[in-house]
Amino acid sequence: MSSLNQRYGQEVIKIEYIDVIDKIYVPHCARGPKRCEECKKAAEEEKICLIRVYLEAGNIARPMSDFVVDGKKVLCEFDVFKIFNDEVEANDYAEKNNINIIFSD
Ligand SMILES: [Zn+2]
Fold first, then answer.
1. pTM of the full predicted structure?
2. Distance, CA 63 to ligand 1 centroid (Å)?
3. How many helices, marked H, and strands, marked E, lie in the chain?
4. Which pLDDT score, from 0 to 100, does residue 105 have?
5. Among 49, 105, 36, which Cα is nearest to 80's?
């Protein structure tokens, strides 16, 4: 959480989302793999992504997944902001932008 405090300076704000880098199956659309061929393809390969994890449910329908936040596994809505080509690119981005990488292997 220290990275968030840095980003917003001294201002005390309610944390509604966090940006992390994780390996996930990037959803293609809301129809899902049972009804959409593109989703089916997307569900076969995990990608390294910059993800915004929303800690509070919003009004927009977003995909949901389990994320580890503060050591706890929570089901959260998320948006994919960026897909990295490889771990090197992800590590580089994480360092430059002070983003936590939460996948491990
Ligand atoms: Zn789809």
1. 0.72
2. 12
3. 3, 5
4. 65
5. 49
pLDDT score, position 12: 58
**Backbone CA torsion sign across 61, 93, 13, 103:** positive
Distance (Å) from CA 12 to ligand 1 centroid: 39
Rounded distance, CA 64 to CA 76, Å?
Answer: 5
Which residues share a beta bridge with 52? 19, 79
**Ligand 1 centroid from CA 23, angstroms:** 19
Q: How far is the CA of 51 from the centre of ligand 1 (A)?
A: 19
Ligand 1 centroid vs 97 CA: distance in angstroms? Answer: 30
Residue 2 clears pLDDT 70, i.e. is over it: no
What is the enclosing helix (H) or strand (E) of 89? helix 87-97
Report how far ligand 1's centroid is from the alpha carbon of 40 (Å): 7
